[in-house]
Design a protein that fits this description.
CATH superfamily: ACP-like
Strand content: under 5%
CATH class: Mainly Alpha
CATH topology: Non-ribosomal Peptide Synthetase Peptidyl Carrier Protein, Chain A
Number of helices: 4
Number of strands: 0
Helix content: 40-55%
Radius of gyration: 13 Å
Largest sheet: none
Shape: globular
Amino acid sequence: MREQIVTFLERRFRASLAGRRVDADTPLLSTGIVDSFGVLELIAFLEETFGVEIDPGRHDLADLDTVAKIAALVATQRPTHRAG
């Protein structure tokens, strides 16, 4: 999951990354790599790619500041499969 998120970020935000690499702990919002419009694009990517629903009104932007935090958020939003 983290690799897919990193690939999306490096492709979509190539200009604001200015040649820098994204790793699990790279600050995205606080450094300006991802702006407010970019957050919406990121959320749309996460919802489409991982089948989750992320309500920006229910989550703090800090939850989207690093790949590690994004992956943790997605993991909590994934539907659980129950037998029965």
